[in-house]
């Protein structure tokens, strides 16, 4: 099976204690079957025997520390990577050397999909904090997928999600600045809620400057908008700790209906 796709999007980190935190990692040799983020990773629908075969090809290296690179643009694509703990960002460099963040990647997301068409990485991936990553040798994955229809289906599902995330990012950056940041916070909220945690209170794993870069705004604009949201009673911000106080009005600000982003009780 030959794999082709693009990558992007936002995913979200959760600790083993049930709270979103920075820099906590699970045991290096934990299996796919035991992994706490399996429900958000590509082996989601594999049977036990299939999981065991997949586990046999996965490599689990030492933790990545903050600032360490998982891969760089131009390097040969020999492995795909699945984040198990921590947060990474991916970015491109312009011809002037300017960074453009393309995604924030947390447990359950695969990295490297954007290089499948060229057999080389198109972006840079760097740890924002201590991270654990599973490496999946591409040649062995293709061989295994050739004899395992369910694995092929799972890979296609992940590729489809990555393409959809790219489209959502493009749509997001076309919104006015005030809507753009509100939609970003609501997306974070929705991702946390999907994992069974609070939709209202969470910790940002990325800096305001990185949020601004990702959204195509200035850091001053992000700070000004957060202050405006606070003054309106929409949010409370303390460092990277976020409390969304009025989800309904945030949705209205983005032009969203209640059914599109459901508030937890």
From TrEMBL:
Gene Ontology annotations for the cellular component aspect, listed alphabetically: cytosol
Record domain HTH crp-type: where: 175-248
Zinc as UniProt keyword: no
Record keyword DNA-binding present: yes
UniProt keyword list: DNA-binding, Transcription, Transcription regulation
Domain of life (superkingdom): Bacteria
InterPro entries, sorted: cNMP-bd_dom (IPR000595), cNMP-bd_dom_sf (IPR018490), Env_Response_Regulators (IPR050397), HTH_CRP (IPR012318), RmlC-like_jellyroll (IPR014710), WH-like_DNA-bd_sf (IPR036388), WH_DNA-bd_sf (IPR036390)
GO MF assignments: DNA binding; DNA-binding transcription factor activity
Pfam family, one: cNMP_binding
Name the record gives this protein: CRP/FNR family transcriptional regulator, anaerobic regulatory protein
Source organism per UniProt: Pseudomonas oryzae
């Amino acid at each position: 099976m030959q794999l082709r796709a693009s990558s992007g999007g936002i995913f979200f980190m959760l600790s083993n204690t049930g709270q979103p935190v920075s820099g906590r990692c699970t045991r290096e040799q934990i299996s796919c079957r035991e992994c706490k983020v399996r429900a958000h990773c590509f082996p989601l629908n594999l049977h036990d025997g299939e999981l065991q075969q997949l586990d046999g090809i996965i490599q689990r290296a030492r933790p990545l520390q903050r600032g360490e690179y998982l891969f760089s643009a131009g390097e040969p694509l020999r492995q795909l990577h699945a984040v198990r703990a921590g947060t990474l960002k991916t970015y491109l460099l312009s011809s002037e050397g300017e960074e453009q963040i393309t995604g924030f990647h947390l447990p359950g997301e695969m990295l490297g999909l954007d290089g499948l068409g060229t057999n080389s990485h198109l972006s840079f991936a760097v740890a924002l904090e201590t991270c654990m990553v599973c490496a999946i040798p591409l040649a062995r994955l293709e061989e295994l997928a050739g004899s395992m229809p369910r694995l092929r289906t799972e890979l296609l599902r992940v590729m489809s999600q990555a393409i959809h995330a790219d489209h959502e990012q493009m749509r997001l950056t076309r919104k006015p600045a005030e809507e753009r940041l509100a939609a970003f916070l609501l997306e974070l909220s929705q991702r946390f809620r999907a994992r069974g945690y609070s939709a209202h209170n969470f910790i940002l794993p990325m800096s305001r400057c990185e949020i601004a870069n990702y959204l195509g705004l200035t850091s001053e604009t992000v700070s000004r908008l957060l202050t405006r949201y606070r003054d309106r009673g929409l949010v409370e911000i303390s460092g990277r700790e976020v409390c969304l106080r009025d989800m309904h009005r945030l949705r209205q600000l983005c032009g969203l209906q209640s059914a599109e982003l459901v508030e937890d009780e």
